[in-house]
Write a structure and sequence with these properties.
Blueprint lengths: L17 E2 L15 E3 L2 E10 L18 E5 L15 E3 L15 E11 L12 E6 L2 E2 L1 E6 L2 E7 L5 E4 L9 E8 L12 E3 L2 E2 L3 E6 L7 E8 L4 E8 L3 E5 L4 E4 L4 E4 L11 E7 L3 E6 L4 E4 L2 E4 L2 E2 L2 E5 L13 H13 L4 E3 L7 H10 L2 E5 L23 H15 L5 E5 L8 H13 L4 E3 L12 E4 L3 H8 L7 H4 L3 E6 L10 H10 L3 E6 L7 E3 L3 E3 L27 H9 L3 E5 L5 E6 L9 E9 L2 E8 L9 E5 L12 E9 L11 E10 L13 E3 L2 E4 L2 E4 L5 E4 L2 E2 L1 E6 L6 H4 L9 H8 L4 E10 L4 E9 L5 E10 L4 E10 L8 E9 L5 E7 L13 E7 L16 E9 L2 E14 L3 H6 L11 E10 L22 E9 L2
Parallel strand pairs: 26-27, 26-33, 27-28, 28-29, 29-30, 31-32, 32-33
Antiparallel strand pairs: 1-10, 2-15, 3-4, 3-6, 5-13, 6-12, 7-11, 7-15, 8-14, 9-10, 9-12, 16-17, 17-20, 18-19, 18-21, 21-22, 23-24, 24-25, 34-35, 36-37, 37-40, 38-39, 38-41, 41-42, 43-44, 44-45, 45-46, 46-47, 48-53, 49-50, 50-51, 51-52, 52-59, 53-58, 54-55, 54-56, 56-57, 57-58, 57-59
């Protein structure tokens, strides 16, 4: 006797995109046709396998009263307090065996049930049809309505619609959806993000009146030579197109040419119109613009554009990829306020409402298909679906659903085939279909280095030197590629402290016409809010495979607070350049916009003395056209600083309110020193004297045996000594796959985190106390001969530190300075003259030197994995805990309520417990940051080399 089990879920492992769904069409938020949102509380049952219990839950009358509830849109693993499974984070490894298209038997499957009534004003059944639309379900869904199966689909971040008009009834409609976490589609969705199953975008019932609009394509081009736009709306259903402000009223399919204002990311002019068919009126927001590849450049409206962009995953720390309109708008507003002009929708089409916002507020968009097969790199790309003809229909379906959904957005200037999917015939088929369907946009794909299927040469994480060569057309490769423009679709990996080197990249971009900018990786840290850890990252949910905090690599923190990296990027890409033109009291202002003049800005000027502004003046800057410069006379002479430093600051501010920021918002700024500060006092005249077990020198007391500083002016000081260690940043640690030097591990191997301090001598001569030491790691011959020389004039105390390297130092130092402790109880507020925010050698473009104050907590940058942070650069003086500290030369300053060693050991912010001591670092130097967490390390000019060095600090009572 034999028998076999028949699987009822073969569709899960079918490589096809699904069955039953309607052809894709243009998406629009609303029309005068009725619609019903089906979001809210749904009944939910979780099963361990794809076949679940049975299909009876889809039948009318099924009693789901004992089921749990989940919120739709939402991910079930982020609900139920952990009762519905857990998130999984991998960068590129598939969290299941790679055997395409098969997936594990253990396949969490969520049955969702929603019972709904039609509104009283819902049209009668004989008045048209109805469509059920799913905007996003991960990763495979099977759908029933009132017991009738509608079909199933894959393509998590893409819309799917089903005709349901004949199945609806006035009340008690039963919508049943079975969602599988794993499917054949999962092999196409190996993006660097959390794996989060569920119905995470809107579910909507749409009435389709008789004569309703079907698919339509708004063609709105702009001729920069004539200033005219040509509008043609192709529609599956005949109708008329009305644009009242342009006096347009024409039939669909009929072109009309009129004078218009063009759309660009800088001047996002939209015209309100309507598509009017016999049964529906659909609002249109029309932007006239032409995208072209001309003269080897990406041009919009006849002008080459420079992308100052970012990659954006959709993320919310509590709701995952289930974003509401308010959150999406917050993202776009933050981007605009930080001078970004472009976004790549990595690595899938976003919620369509996000593109509406890009149209409205102005961002260039690379719209990327929901495709990544990165995990196949582990097997040399063998069996990669994009080079397997069986998968091509699924790839073409994904391309079509992206293009048809988003084709009416003027903000979209590129279609991207996907990300990190290798190469193959399927990608060629996608590119050919897209080029045939929409010739008004360009096609992008980074993995096609030979540019067979793309209109741009795109790379990720190319070094500064390589980008320079590409800009000079010295990169080699096929001849056709060398004639194409270049963009960095990913660079400046914003993981933890960093990214460094952005200003250097921007200078290269602006130096070579072929280089048309890039997109920082990425927008937001994907931390999941956690009751104990604050924010969780990979591994915090017990995943057997994970990539740790590699998912936390954004310019904003999970709560959407800007990181220092975003502030730095804003400064680097600011659209107005302001430079000191010379000693004659002039500044040079250059318009770095691509399209806008400067008439929307006002310029404010002020002098500062010792960091304190002396009063603002208006600076008269003409409304320069893009690319134009002018030299502008400063309106007032510099004041006499009487030995204090004198600077000027010029700020470019919005003159009036805009849709994305209010009047007075700072767009750009520059700062220059007019008169340097006087040299610090020698602080001599009071010699050291013995007092029992102490040595007294002016206001300070030292241990007579060790020469250790004990107090200054009654302020207890703990453990002042040379410090070279910093808690390695993610960029110090580097990525495991990189073959260049990763200094975080080299520093640790050398033992810089466990330096020994040998006392070689304490000498009290006529006017100085000199302490000689050697600072070195155990088991190594290298060391730092360090001499501390203390002098005083009776009131002030001066420390001069001389450092001489010994041995063969093959690595740079993490930092070089002194560290000491102050009592936390009396050390709360810090004031200083230096950079306002965190800054390191290659992240200090935004270091605005003014007078600042903050409490100790505000000096910390809350990177989700704790690491070196919070240093203020170019500090002339700092005041805290009853002491004032002046530096010669300027120094880096940081202070925290835990030691560097505790910071280094922590894995989450919750691991850090404030102690009784504030640990202060006064650093003569810091090593650069770079972006080696997934890119190049710091440039050589930002290395902190071990070489003979001398620096001084003067301590005095706080004012």
């Amino acid at each position: 006797m034999s028998f076999r089990t028949t699987r009822t879920v073969d569709y899960v492992e079918d490589v096809s995109p699904g069955r039953g769904a309607l052809p894709p069409r243009a998406w629009y938020a609303a029309s005068d046709a009725k619609s019903l949102s089906l979001g809210g509380d749904w009944r939910f049952r979780l099963s361990a396998t794809a076949d679940a219990e049975d299909d009876s839950f889809a039948a009318e009358g099924y009693d789901a009263g004992g089921w749990a509830e989940v919120t739709v849109p939402g991910h079930w693993v982020l609900q139920g307090d952990g009762g519905f499974g857990s998130p999984i984070y991998t960068n590129h490894l598939y969290p299941f065996p790679v055997d395409p298209p098969r997936v594990p038997t253990e396949n969490p499957t969520g049955d969702h049930l929603r019972v709904f009534d039609l509104p009283d004003d819902w049209p009668a059944p004989d008045d048209g049809d109805a469509v059920l639309r799913f905007d996003g379900v991960e990763s495979c869904a099977r759908v029933w309505l009132n017991g009738t199966e509608l079909g199933e689909f894959k393509g998590s971040r893409l819309p799917h619609e089903f005709a349901v008009g004949s199945l609806l009834k006035p009340a008690g409609n039963v919508l049943a959806v079975r969602v599988h976490q794993w499917s054949a589609g999962s092999y196409l969705e190996d993006q660097d993000q959390w794996w989060l199953p569920g119905i995470f975008r809107d579910v909507t019932l749409l009435h389709r009146p008789t004569g309703a609009a079907g698919d339509f394509f708004v063609h709105a081009s702009y001729d920069h030579a004539t200033g005219e736009g040509t509008l043609r709306v192709d529609s599956d259903v005949d109708g008329r197109v009305s644009v009242p402000s342009l006096d347009i009223d024409v039939a669909t399919g009929e072109p009309v040419t009129v004078a218009v204002e063009p759309w660009s990311a800088e001047t996002p002019k939209l015209y309100d119109g309507e598509l009017i068919t016999a049964g529906e009126r659909v609002p249109l927001r029309i932007g006239f613009r032409t995208v072209a590849l001309e003269d080897g450049l990406i041009k919009v409206n006849g002008k080459a554009v420079l992308f100052k962009g970012v990659n954006r995953h959709e993320w919310h720390p509590e709701r995952g990829r289930a974003l509401d309109l308010e959150t999406m708008r917050e993202d776009v507003l933050l981007m605009k306020r930080h001078n970004l002009n472009a976004v790549r929708t990595s690595h899938y089409p976003p919620h369509p409402a996000f593109l509406d916002l890009c149209d409205e507020l102005g961002l260039w968009v690379i719209d990327e298909c929901d495709l990544e097969t990165h995990g196949f790199t582990e097997q040399g790309w063998r069996d990669n679906p994009v080079d397997d003809d069986r998968w091509t229909p699924a790839l073409l379906d994904r391309a079509a659903r992206m293009v048809e959904r988003d084709k009416n957005h003027p903000s979209v200037v590129f279609w991207s085939l996907g990300n990190e999917a290798g190469t193959g015939r399927g990608l060629t088929a996608m590119a050919e279909w897209i080029h045939g369907r929409d010739a008004s946009r360009l096609v992008h794909y980074e993995g096609d280095w030979n540019c067979r299927n793309t209109d741009v040469y795109s790379r990720m994480y190319a070094s500064h030197a390589e980008v320079e060569r590409i800009g000079q057309h010295l990169d080699g490769g096929p001849h056709a590629r060398r004639d194409l423009p270049f963009i960095q679709c990913e660079y400046g990996h914003a993981m933890g402290n960093g990214p460094g080197g952005l200003a250097d990249y921007q200078q290269i971009f602006e130096r070579h016409e072929r280089l048309q900018g890039g997109f920082i990786w990425e927008w937001i840290d994907h931390g999941i809010r956690h009751p104990e850890l604050g924010y969780a990252y990979g591994g915090d949910f017990g995943e057997e495979l994970h990539d740790g905090n590699f998912v936390c690599d954004g310019l904003i923190f999970p709560d959407r607070t800007p990181s220092p990296g975003l502030v730095e990027y804003k400064k680097v890409i600011e659209p107005v350049r302001i430079e000191g033109a010379g000693a004659d009291g002039t500044v040079r202002v250059t318009n770095a916009y691509d399209f806008a003049d400067l008439s929307h800005l006002r310029f404010e000027f002020s002098y500062q003395v010792d960091g304190m502004p002396t009063g603002a003046h208006t600076l008269a800057v003409p409304p320069l056209a893009p690319g134009e410069s002018a030299e502008v006379k400063l309106p007032a002479p510099a004041p006499d600083g009487n030995g204090d430093e004198v600077q000027w600051t010029v700020r470019a501010l919005l003159a009036e309110d805009t849709p994305w920021a209010g009047a007075g918002h700072e767009v750009a700024w520059a700062q220059r020193t007019v008169a340097p500060r006087a040299a610090l006092p020698a602080a001599t005249g009071a010699g050291p004297t013995a007092d029992g077990d102490r040595i007294v020198l002016g206001p300070a007391a030292f241990d007579a045996r060790t020469g250790a500083l004990r107090s200054i002016g009654g302020v207890d000081v703990t453990g002042l000594r040379l410090d070279v260690w910093r808690a390695p940043t993610d960029n110090d640690e580097g990525a495991s796959w990189q073959d260049d030097a990763r200094y975080g591990s080299l520093w640790r191997k050398l033992g810089l985190h466990r330096m020994r301090h040998r006392l070689d001598g304490v000498e009290a001569d006529g006017d100085a106390l000199t302490v000689t030491t050697r600072v070195a790691p155990a088991a190594r011959e290298v060391g730092l001969r360090t001499v501390y020389r203390w002098t005083s004039d009776g009131t002030r105390l001066r420390l001069t530190v001389s450092v001489t390297p010994e041995g063969d130092w093959k690595v740079p130092l993490p930092r070089l300075g002194v560290r000491f402790g102050l009592p936390a109880a009396s050390t709360g507020i810090v004031s200083w003259f230096g950079s306002g925010g965190e800054a390191y050698p290659d992240t200090k473009a935004a270091a605005k030197g003014l007078l600042w104050d903050a409490d100790i907590e505000e000096l910390q940058t809350p990177y989700l994995r704790p690491q070196e942070n919070g240093a203020r650069s170019d500090v002339r003086w700092a005041q805290l805990g009853g002491l004032r500290i002046d530096g010669e030369p300027e120094f880096w300053f940081s202070a925290r309520r835990w030691t560097t060693e505790q910071l280094d050991a922590a894995r989450h912010l919750s691991d850090l417990t404030p102690g009784d001591t504030v640990w202060v670092n006064l650093d003569h130097g810091q090593h650069g940051i770079g972006s080696q967490s997934c890119g190049p390390g710091p440039l050589p000019q930002y290395f902190l080399k071990a070489e003979p060095t001398e620096f001084s600090f003067v301590f005095s009572p706080a004012e």
